[in-house]
Amino acid sequence: MKLIIYLLLIYLVYKVIKIWMAPSAYSGKGEYGSAGTVEDIMIKDPVCGVYFPKKDGIYLNDDGRDMYFCSSECRDRFVDSGSKK
Ligand SMILES: [Zn+2]
After folding, report:
1. I need a labelling partner for 71 at 20 to 30 A (CA). Which of 38, 41, 50, 53 fits?
2. DSSP the chain
3. How far is the CA of 40 from the centre of ligand 1 (A)?
């Protein structure tokens, strides 16, 4: 019956070595960390309060300020509310 314990031990060692050898594959999506880009900055939508990646945001220049929105609908709502001065 000791053979099973040995096999289990070998399996565990094999698993640890596998994780060691390929840490990127273990941590999830493959494309992450390949180029080292810092484009995944999360921004809060000022209209609906949703967080989204900056690269997916809708850009608006509001009186020289850089604004980003989760969708063009939120941008339009912001523009509408802002023009009621
Ligand atoms: Zn929004």
Report:
1. 38
2. -HHHHHHHHHHHHHHHHHHHH-HHHHTS-TTTTSS------EEE-TTT--EEEGGGSEEEEETTEEEEESSHHHHHHHHHHHT--
3. 17
